[in-house]
Design brief:
cell membrane; alpha/beta; 38% helix; binds magnesium ion; binds adenosine-5'-diphosphate; single chain; six-stranded mixed sheet
Length: 245
């Protein structure tokens, strides 16, 4: 359902992604692992076109875009972006909006839903992530784990085809990370398609069907979690995975 083919991206002299191919089946979870600076965040940003790849092809559902070094048509960019939801390491909730308003925001301002319908959808999602009781609170009054659960509800609001998560548990203490993992696991069980950069081996092992190991912008190894974590083909993969344990 998502296919990246030959995706390359450079920032000035720095080749950040080099001919990256990834296939993600509908309803599956792919974990993206690799050292800091290997290009994980850039790859996620290329999927929702916050960054425009220099070369390659991106397919998302029925949309396919081929990159040629010029800006793609904005209409195609918006069609693709609207099929994605993004969850960030640092939550990035709107601080001057309540929890409820954070989840409603995109529905009302981008999709032009009426307030009542947006509120109903937001409440359903807040219930799903266990945050309905905080609907009227300000983000700053919540724990990091609670903020991230609200951020997940916000990302899900427009019913994206794929949820992109950039180190969703990295900023959290283990107990707070656990409540976020529980929500992501629930979504995975419900068949949400996800691409997730993470350093959390337990998260990757718990919910992904595919692990992709990125190094210096290249995919050096990919496979089932069991294989990558316990029986990798390459010594470099073994060495990196050991640092995460
Ligand atoms: P990761 O998420 O794996 O840590 P990133 O995708 O954030 O890696 O970054 C990969 C490399 O690209 C890093 O060297 C980073 O400094 C560089 N980089 C990322 N974004 C930009 C940008 N907007 N401009 C210039 N360099 C960038
Ligand atoms: Mg990153």
């Amino acid at each position: 359902m998502i296919a990246l083919q030959g995706i390359s991206k450079r920032f000035g002299e720095l080749q950040v992604l080099n001919d990256v191919d990834v296939d993600i089946a509908e309803g599956s979870v792919t974990a993206l692992i690799g050292p800091s600076g290997s290009g994980k965040s850039t790859l996620l940003r290329c999927v929702n076109l916050l960054e425009t790849p220099d070369a390659g092809t991106l397919t998302l559902g029925s949309e396919t875009l081929t990159f040629t070094g010029t800006a793609p048509p904005i209409s195609a960019v918006l069609r693709i972006r609207r099929q994605t939801g993004m969850v960030f390491q640092n939550f990035q909730l709107f601080p001057h909006r309540t929890v409820m308003e954070n989840v409603m925001e995109g529905l009302v301002t981008v999709l032009r839903w009426p307030q009542a319908k947006a509120r109903e959808r937001a409440m359903t999602l807040l219930e799903k992530v266990g945050m309905a009781h905080k609907a009227a609170e300000w983000p700053a009054t919540l724990s990091g784990g609670q903020q991230q659960r609200v951020a997940i509800a916000r990302a899900l609001a427009p019913s994206p085809r794929v949820l992109l998560c950039d180190e969703p548990t990295s900023a959290l203490d283990p107990s707070l990370a656990a409540e976020v993992v529980q929500v992501l696991r629930l979504l995975a069980e419900e068949g949400m398609t996800m691409l997730m950069a993470t350093h959390d081996l337990r998260l990757a092992a718990a919910i992904s069907q595919q692990v992709v190991f990125l190094e210096n912008g290249c995919i050096v190894e990919s496979g089932a979690p069991r294989q990558i974590f316990f029986d990798p083909a390459r010594a470099e993969t073994q060495a990196f995975v050991t640092t995460l344990r």
